[in-house]
Amino acid sequence: MDWRQLFYHSMNMFNVVIVSYFFVGNGVYTLLMMVSLVSVWVHNRRLAYQGLDDIRESVITPPATIIMPAWNEQEIIATSLASILKTDYPSLEVIVVDDGSSDETLQRLITAFKLVKMDLIYRPRIPTKALRGFYLNPRIPNLLVISKENGGKPDALNVGINMCRTPYFCTLDSDCLLEPDALLRLMRPIIRSPINTVASGGIVRILNGCDVKDDRVVKVGLPQGRVERFQVVEYLRSFHFGRAGWDLLGGTLIVSGAFAVFHRESVIETGGFHLDTVTEDMDLIVQLHRWAVHNHRKIKMSFTSDPVCWTECPSSLSNLARQRRRWQMGLFQTLWKNSEMLFNRKFGLLGWLSFPFQLYIEGLGAAVEFLGYFMVPLALGRGIVPPTLFVLFVLL
Amino acid sequence: MKSAAVSFPLKQADELLPLLAALNGRLRFQAVDILREMVEREAAREAEFQLDRQNLSPELTELFVTKLCFDENPDARARSALTLSYLLDLRATPALVTLLEDSQWFVRLHAVRSLAKRKFLSQADAIGKRLTDSQWMVREAAARTLMVFGRAGLDQLTRHFLETQDRYSREQVADEMQRAGLLPTLLAQYASEPKGDEVEVFRQLSGMGKTSYLVSTLASSSDKNLRKKFLLDLGAHSDPQIRTWVRQLAARETDLELRTLATSLARQASPEKGGT
User: Fold this and answer.
1) Which domains does chain B have, with CATH numbers?
2) Which candidate, B63, B118, B117, places its Cα nearest to that of B95?
3) Nearest partner of B196 among B155, B242, B144, B149, judged by Cα
4) Interface check B217 vs A, CB under 8 A
5) Residues of B with CB below 8 A from A139's CB?
6) CB B14 within 8 A of CB B57
7) Which of A208, B60, B99, B252 is least crowded, fewest Cβ atoms below 10 Å from its Cβ?
8) How many angstroms separate the CA atoms of B187 and B225, rounded?
9) Are B218 and B241 in contact (CB under 8 A)?
10) Mean pLDDT of chain A
């Protein structure tokens, strides 16, 4: 076989990959979009009849804890925490875990909230790095700041889980802004569900370009930069189409750890946030699925399309590349680590649709799409792909 | 509907009687909750508010003390606690004390919170038992309720802390004492009174290694008498934070008498565990 034949064979094979990738990807996304439409419509109808007052005032609304890991966040930590403490939720505790910051994060918290060091009970049900101290202000009884040795975000979250005294906890990134009633909305599917809802995720939206006043988004706007604008569209697509659709199908594999509620005991039984992947939130969701299947537990995961948490997105290409490299690596680490789920009938839709989709479309997406920009025009130029087929493909 | 219902005057609460006696537990709960809000609104207007024949009918009183506090719906039991706490009826307090032992933690929580009035001082013992409740919210509420009783409540808390033989229970109470910010109050009492249980509390806390809050309160205090007394009682304790504080006093204290005392304690080569 000479090099020409080899080239033509390779191009043909790649074209098959491209076509199948787009058919599977667009096909599943179309399905998700339709399912999401139903999900959002049903959700909005329910909202009209079920106010949040019931949850706010009910004696049986479970108390919840917001766990906020912080590492070198001296510029924003005090204002961010002040905003979190205003969250509208009955019996709310807030735990900030300073993950061994080398800047003044802890000191600024102590000063801003007049905290004093206390010696509280610590029973580490999930092993973590050593703690340095607990800081409280008796006048703000629902706030606890913990200082610990640096061990990464998952380790900081595990410390928070160990100290959490409520049945549910919410993970929140320290650079995020919460809508005042976001937690109430996130807890509603948990309270309403008769099945143990182990995770409840909400929508994360991009803060860049929005007007913020008193730690609240007062006007939603578009950012100036193209990199940020693309991400606005991408986030909306990902949350409104992808996650809402997967939720209704029962195939949730990703809940954004920037803002999500988890059932504490279930998370502890899976060993908390694992330290061996860089996307600990996705890994935890997969671990929860595995734990439920192996232990014959009936669990539910929920995605709510209205709670809003605002976060800053990378504004430069280099920062975006760094973030996406991390996400892509974390995705592969998680998929590799849990490869037993792939086409495993025990996991049902997760093993047959959700997991393969994540592997083929999300995992290989970057490589396939990047190569496609070069290979498809090349194939067209060489006459391997007929122009009519190419036009049809682009139109589709 | 509920918002509209609670805005009616308490005198018209009799209209709720059919709902309070309804077979449906959810309806009973809603009615109890409406009445609770009506009572809370009235109580907010009057410092010494009480529910007597003038503002609550005997039928309603009877229903609360004989039925609703034992309702099969725990939500109804929980929400009846506050109304019971305002009732001027001899059966109301025993009913509340019964709710303190309820099998549902949120009923116990509401009962403990409802007892946070000085007139329930005699129930301090029963509330003290909730300091070791399995639910942290009940424990915390118990500590805060005892604090409302002033000195007597604080005494109850310290007595429980000192008398319990259970290590875990003692740790729990130590946690609540810190979280509720009781140590500055205990230190103030300790400074002003010749004999009390406070020194024993501090000794126990030092033995448990829970001295961060204690020492930081001492360090920020300007009361010379307090620091001197603490130095004499516990200045030789082996707790590392107390040792550090004593050394700092020896190095920086401006008062000569205190500095001399701290210096002599800091020089002690092998500190005596448990204090002098």
Assistant:
1) 1-114 (1.25.10.10), 120-204 (no CATH), 222-271 (no CATH)
2) B63
3) B155
4) yes
5) 181
6) yes
7) B252
8) 11
9) no
10) 89
A119 reaches B (C-beta below 8 A): yes
Kindly state whether A34 is in contact with chain B, defined as any CB-CB distance less than 8 angstroms.
Answer: no
Q: What is the DSSP letter of A237?
A: I
Residue A157 CA to residue A163 CA, distance in Å, equals 10
Q: Are B251 and B258 in contact (CB under 8 A)?
A: no
Residue B210 at interface with chain A, using a CB cutoff of 8 Å: yes
pLDDT tens figures, A360-370: 888 888 888 78
Judged by a CB distance cut-off of 8 A, whether residue B17 touches chain A is no
Q: Does B154 touch chain A (CB under 8 A)?
A: no
- Give me the residue label for tokens 């409540």: B153
Q: Contact A215/A82 with Cβ under 8 angstroms?
A: yes
Q: Which residue has the tokens 């809003």?
A: A308
State how far the Cα of A362 lies from the Cα of A358, in Å rounded to an integer.
5
The pLDDT score that the predictor gives to residue A268 is: 95
Chain B residues in contact with A121 by the CB 8 A cut-off are 171-172, 175
Q: How close does chain A come to B180, measured CA to CA in Å?
A: 5
Which one, of A167, A171, A237, A166, lies nearest residue A201 by Cα? A171
Q: Are A199 and A190 in contact (CB under 8 A)?
A: no
The DSSP code sequence of B163-198 is H---HHHHHHHHHHHHHTT-HHHHHHHHHH-SS-SH
Contact B78 A141 (CB under 8 A): no
Residue A315 structure tokens: 């504004």
The residue ranking higher by pLDDT, A396 or B158, is B158
Return the residue of A nearest to B213 by Cα.
Answer: A118
Contact B217 A116 (CB under 8 A): yes
Name the minimum distance, in Å, from the CA of B179 to any CA of chain A: 6
Q: Convert the pLDDT of each residue in A58-107 to its tens digit.
A: 666 889 999 999 999 998 899 889 989 989 998 899 999 999 999 999 99
DSSP readout, A125-140? SS--SPEEEEEE-TTS
User: Which residues 80-139 in chain B show a CB within 8 A of chain A?
Assistant: 106, 110, 136-137
For A194, residues 6+ apart whose C-beta sits below 8 A from its C-beta are none
Cβ contact, residue pair B179, A120, below 8 Å: yes
List Cα–Cα distances, A185 to A180, A200, A388, in angstroms. 10, 10, 50
pTM for this model (two decimals):
0.82
Alpha helices (H) in B46-123, listed in sequence order: 58-66, 74-86, 92-99, 105-114
Closest approach of B85 to chain A, Cα-based (Å): 18
Question: Residue A299: which of A235, A347, A231, A351 has the closest Cα?
Answer: A347
For residue A59, the distance in angstroms to the closest alpha carbon of chain B comes to 7
Say if the Cβ atoms of A63 and B216 lie within 8 Å. no
Q: Are strands A92-99 and A64-70 parallel, antiparallel or unpaired?
A: parallel
Q: In angstroms, rounded to a whole number, what is the distance separating the alpha carbons of residues B208 and B154?
A: 20
Does B137 contact A63 at a Cβ distance shorter than 8 Å?
Answer: yes
Between chain A and chain B, the number of residue pairs with CB atoms below 8 A apart is 49
